[in-house]
Structures are given as structure tokens and as C-alpha cells.
UniProtKB/TrEMBL annotation, chains A, B:
Upper lineage: Bacteria, Bacillati, Actinomycetota, Actinomycetes, Mycobacteriales
Domain of life of the source: Bacteria
Annotated PROSITE patterns: NUDIX (PS51462)
InterPro entries registered for this protein in UniProt: NUDIX_hydrolase-like_dom_sf, NUDIX_hydrolase_dom, WH-like_DNA-bd_sf, WH_DNA-bd_sf, WHD_NrtR
Name of the protein described by the UniProt record: NrtR DNA-binding winged helix domain-containing protein
Chain segments annotated as coiled-coil in the UniProt record: none
Keyword DNA-binding: yes
TM spans (from-to): none
Organism: Nocardia xishanensis
SUPFAM superfamilies reported in the protein's UniProt record: Nudix (SSF55811), Winged helix' DNA-binding domain (SSF46785)
GO MF term (any one): DNA binding
Keyword DNA-binding found: yes
Nudix hydrolase domain: residues covered: 21-159
Pfam families linked: NUDIX (PF00293), WHD_NrtR (PF21906)
């Protein structure tokens, strides 16, 4: 079998739950007047960081940040380096490998094998973006380059799965939050609404979240002050293992 | 940055829970007289498929099956093709990507980027192996080639994690089994014993296993006939998502 030159690249789907303005366009690719369920009537959405190609191939389509692996670096370091051109990597709260995209025809020209990553940025971060770069709701992607839309879909599926059995929401949430804000984050990341009371009960019982003891002032709607929580851990862990499978205490 | 030629390869850790003979050597790399906890005094162990290098570099060390990605194939197909030289791929009940090993110095010579896979074979399969290939207990690996020992460790960690929140044990178990056999499999794969009654209760409640209605004849120890189960699904699924995060029924 003849082996021609192959390029290896990283591609990162950086996600953030963002509050888009309602009733007006919120940037390129964002339909106006749309409102979502999180909470009903507002537009908190899972968004992905994309840049617009100024040159062919596929000029005008939108791409994930990434680029060619350097000779002297590993893939994780390369992904972080490529991201640093688009967003301050200190604002990344989580980065993990997804799968490798290796279809021989995935891009025109020399073969490129892409290691895909999922990156997360918390709700309250507001990274400065280069002029060619913008946040787009995952529910309304613009024309995507090559197979980058498929990478976004893989990343979204991985995130939704991990929300169900890990504490990964720590990487999307501010350092402290009310349950109302946390529900808004879960709803946007999952794409459907969840019940605040159930969410609080499940996450507290599994020690995923911890009350800080503080309360937040009531919102415009009034009512009682809301308890403020934080995530118990700031590293990824499986929160929900079968108790029957834990090693026995000695 | 200068880019020299880079090779992309697959490497697969194929695992099987195997019953090694007690009290005597069970092949190269297997210590004699060792007995484990699954069940106590027997030697059911998680084993990995390795082949011995007949040539330098690192002649005499043991390697995972794998090899160079062909120009006209994707990585998953390549991993299956490489494996077919060592084990009939029809016996593989599960294959998934782990992470990519991309350290520039991981092997001598031209750079090789390895996509690592986890493969599973059920307890009762007995693939015919080439002469250079053998099953080794993961707890007593022989001298391993390059970073292949690290790949095995990643695969073992992934498997143990997935045993706790998915039905992945379907790929290690025979098509039907008693709880005693299933406990033996979990114990070997996890490296510590689990309680049969708890295991049955948790897996049945979560609908991971289903009684077939049949019973197995008592073993040498006598006693009542044991209920026979099967896995409800033969594809991987997360079994243990937060109920609070399920979409509401309409």
C-alpha cells in the first residue's frame, strides 16, 4: 500500500451556555425573534465558537478552531495552542478528546486526520474574540466547513451524555449560582427543560453541589432570596457509579 | 515549523475475562500458583491479547495488535483489519476508541501517532491465536513494548468506569449466564470482589439484565438451581442517567 503524506490536525468544539438577546439578531447566523425553553421565552442557548473562512476551499463557511500538529508537540498541547489564537485558554474549564475523524475523503487535497476535542467555557466568561470569530447557537448553525458540523454534533452528544452521569456541569456554571441559573444551564445544554426541584434534590443527594450558605437577592419577580450553591469538585468525576460496584470499605 | 513524515497507526487492547488454570503456569508471562479473588481461590482474570516482537526495536517485548493506517481506510476499519490478523473479528463484541497517543518521542524513528482502541471478547470465546500471540493477565503484564503498557492501563480504567454507568458487561458475558458467573466477570474486570445479591438487585432494577426463565443445574457444591439471565441490550447504553434529566413524557 502506497502511503502519501498525511497531515494531523486538532479541531475543538468550544461550547458555552450563553444568554442571547431576545427579539433581535445576536450575531451572524443567529435567527432573530427566536426564543427557547430555557427558561421559556428567553434565549439561553448552548453556543459553539466558530470562525469564518476568508479563503477557499469553502470560503465563507464556518470552521472550528484548530490546526496542524507541530513536530515537537503532543495533540493536547497542540489543541490548546491552536485555541489560544481564538480564545484565552485560561477561560477553558474543561478540555477532552472526542474521537478521531479519519475518513480519507473528509477534506479536499492531502489527507488530514483530525483529532476532535470538546472544550467548555463557563456562563460568565466573555472572551475577547478575533474579528472573524463568533458564538453560534448549536441549534442554528451556519453553513459549516467540511465535516465540522458532524464534530459539533458529536461534541453535543458527548456533553449531554456526561451531564447525566458526571459533574461536568461545573465547567459550564459560574463559580457560585442559584438553582434557577443551574437549571437554565442544564436546559440549554440538554435542549429541553428540567425541573429545578428534582435537579436540586438529585445533585445535592449525590454531593455534586454544595450550599455556600449565602443567598441571592430576589430577581425582578420578587419572592424569597434564593440559596447559592457551588460545585463540590472542579475536576471531572463520575457521580453515579453503581454502589454495588464500589470496593468494600476495609 | 518543519513537518517531517508522520505515520498514523491503530493499537487495540483486546480484553477478555478468562479462567486461567490454578496452581500452574498458563502461558508465557503468567506466574504460577497465583490465585485471585474472583471467586476466592480461583484464577478468573481480565486478560489482554499480546504478541511478542521477533525483531528489533525492542525484540522480545510484547505488543498490542495494530498497525499502520492505509491510505484508503478510516481508523475504525483499520483497527478491525489489523486485529483480524490476530483474532477473528466476528468474536469482538465491542470496539471503541480510547485516546490518541501522540507524544513526539513515544517510539524511536519516524513519528508514529497511535489511535488506541478498547476491544472486548466474551468469556466463552476461544479464538485461535497465531504462534506469537497469547492472553496475559492485566495484573501480571510481561515486558511491554514502547508505551503499550500505558495503553493497557487506559483501557482498563475506561472499562472499569463504564462498568459503573453502562451495560458494557454484555460484551464480556456469555449470551446467557447465572449471577455467579456474572459476579466472576465483574470481579475480574474490576479487580475486586462484588456482592452477588447487590449486583443482581441493581442490574435488574435498572433493566440491564433480564431473567430468561430457565435455570442452571447446581454446580459441584450442590444447592438450588440458579436462575439464568441475559443482557437486555446487546449495544452499549448509559444505564444510569439522572432521572431528573430525562426529557419529560409528552
Amino acid at each position: 500500500m502506497h502511503h502519501s503524506s498525511t497531515i494531523h490536525e486538532s479541531l475543538t468544539a468550544v461550547f458555552q451556555v450563553r444568554r442571547f438577546p431576545t427579539g433581535k439578531a445576536a450575531g451572524q447566523g443567529v435567527a432573530s425573534g427566536v426564543s427557547g425553553p430555557c427558561p421559556p421565552g428567553r434565549r439561553t442557548e448552548l453556543a459553539v465558537l466558530l470562525w469564518e473562512r476568508a479563503l477557499d476551499p469553502q470560503k465563507g463557511t464556518w470552521s472550528l478552531p484548530g490546526g496542524r500538529l507541530g513536530d515537537d508537540e503532543g495533540l493536547d498541547a497542540s489543541a490548546r495552542r491552536q485555541l489560544a489564537e481564538k480564545v484565552d485558554v485560561r477561560e477553558l474549564t474543561h478540555l477532552e478528546q472526542l474521537s478521531v475523524f479519519s475518513d480519507p475523503g473528509r477534506v479536499p487535497g492531502p489527507r488530514r486526520i483530525a483529532s476532535a476535542y470538546l472544550g467548555l467555557v463557563p456562563l460568565t466568561a466573555e472572551p475577547e474574540l478575533p474579528g472573524d470569530t463568533a458564538w453560534h447557537p448549536v441549534s442554528a448553525l451556519p453553513a459549516m466547513s467540511f465535516d465540522h458540523g458532524t464534530v459539533v454534533e458529536h461534541a453535543r452528544t458527548r456533553l449531554a451524555a456526561k451531564l447525566s452521569y458526571t459533574n461536568i456541569a461545573f465547567a459550564l456554571a459560574p463559580s457560585t449560582f442559584t438553582m434557577s441559573t443551574l437549571r437554565e444551564i442544564y436546559c440549554a445544554a440538554l435542549g429541553y427543560d428540567v425541573d429545578t426541584t428534582n435537579l436540586q434534590r438529585v445533585l445535592a443527594r449525590r454531593k455534586v453541589i454544595t450550599p455556600t450558605g449565602a443567598t441571592a437577592a430576589p430577581g425582578r419577580a420578587g419572592g424569597r432570596p434564593a440559596a447559592v450553591y457551588r460545585f463540590t469538585d472542579s475536576g471531572l468525576r463520575v457521580t453515579d457509579e453503581f454502589a454495588a460496584l464500589r470496593p468494600r470499605a476495609e
